[in-house]
Request: fold
Amino acid sequence: MRTNWPTAAALAFAVLLASRTSAQTQVPQAAELRAAFAQAKSGSLPDDARVRLAKHPLRPWLDALAWRSGIMQSDGARVEALLAEDPDTPSSDWLVKQWRNELVRRQDWPAVAAWNTRHPDDGAASRCAVLLAVDATARDFAWRQNALAVWLNEAKAPAACTPVFDALKSAGAIDGTRAWQRFDRLLADGAVERMPEAIGAMNAADASLAGRYLAFIAGGSADTAWPDDTRGRRVLQQGLMNLAKRDPAQAERLSAATPLAEGLNAEQRNALLSEIALWSMVDYLPEAERRYLAVPEAARSVNLREWYLRNAFHANDDAKTLAAFEQLLPAQRDEPRWQYFQARVLQRLGRNDDALPLYRKAAQSASFHGWLAAERLGADYAFCPLEPRPSPKEHVDLHRDPGLRRALWLWQLGEANTAIWEWNAAYRPLAPQQRRAALAMARDIGWYDRAVFALDADEASQRLYTVRFATPYNDAFESAAARFGIDRSWLTAHARAESIFMPEVTSGADARGLLQLLPSTAERIALRHGIAWEGPASLYRPEVNIPLGAGALRDVIDGYQGRAWLAIGAYNAGPAAVNRWLAARPALEPEFWIETVPYKETREYIPRVLAFSVIYDWRLKRPVRPIMQRLSGDFGEPARTVALRCPQPVPAKKPR
Reply:
């Protein structure tokens, strides 16, 4: 079987480059630097340490961080000296931003204005600071026009602009017309939380009306007895669309009962109908199809059409579902996901000859649905890995790139924030092939998220599987998988999907570490499985997080009798949500059930983990377990395995 695997010579070259990379990315004077960075951030960097490190490429960051530690007592002279010493570097850009933020915090407007003269910045905070630097007695017509431009155009103006607005109000420059203009701008931008700012500049009568508008938009009132004008209709549209997300039926009833709705223009009416239809379909309401069909054909978005298909899946009626595919736009019909589902429906209807071409098209894709299509055909999985192969000169040039080198060193020293400043500056100008090699360099030092957050969207970059799917913490994953009887590739795929192997990541909900565990969940898992609980901070240690995450995964696997798609969904969205969705659609085939999940994050998360599991079989040099077998929850010896093959392009026919 022919593949496009790297040749032996190419592999040997890659190994040689990797060994050189390891040596060339080692941080010189690492132990001393690590101590110096800690001292700099605490404001206690000794002079002799700075002298010893004076010629080190990271010395500018030491100086910058040492200065930052005492920024509240600084008068700016030191930062000017540092900028003169190391101009036009990421550390100097960082210093400029830090000092500007400090001056704004101090409300030292003349200093901000002077700083912006030397270091231009067109952000709203800087513009407002420049305005505030003008003495109150010198604020002339031009000043007011510039200030009014911020008032009228900056829907989400920062706190530094509040004194500008106050000055305008005190000077009587904000009349009723301008107050309403800001209200309208905030309405257009959906900045509802800022509306009281505009309302506070209105007279009593206008403020009362605007307050009623705000109450309706925010969902605190059903009162729509206001003027039938452009603004009133926009408020009605926005309020009804917000209501549709919470209660589509109420939004539909209120729009029908409100005379003001008759004045909505076609665009407003279609937007409202689309929102009512969308949330009816997301909630799988009986009226969903009627509401969808009420949206004019030309106004049906890609998302709306996809939800119409999901509602057909929900009904589990193959004839109806097949007809629903007609709603897809041509570009959607070319997606492997919908090709697979249409082929599956045709197959269930006994129309195998019609299903086969769709399966073949979908099976060209290295994706969850592409691999499902390949299984239906009994074919190999499409898989075309690509290795970054810089030429020897490119390899040398990358390792000599001072910015990239500083970024990699900073990361290894644990200085993530400053490393990103250097990385962004160094990575941006690189050519595509150089970028791919730089991502491999980042992977080799454990900076795994660069292969996601910095990865280009082109097809070649997406094929960098060894770069995108690292294999760290092997012993911990092997041990935890064996302890809890979990497929090793599946467990690794979960960690890749949850954290990209970044052990110190924390979610907004306080889920921590590689497998994103809440401290309360982790403590419960530890008690249940006899694992020593060392407290929330221990979740940032892979050797603690991985077995606890494996225990959490084992619990949801057992809770759903090994049905992998439900266990993965419960790991992401919680058992309560999965149980609710399962009760609503108990008879759907797994892949159809996954596609009907209302939460976008979970709907995409389940196929991602399953597809990642296939890739990790390959990365870990294990037999590739078919996705269908994974879905069944059978993780014994595979009844069969699948081969990975790069499809050969079909040659174009020569014209006669």
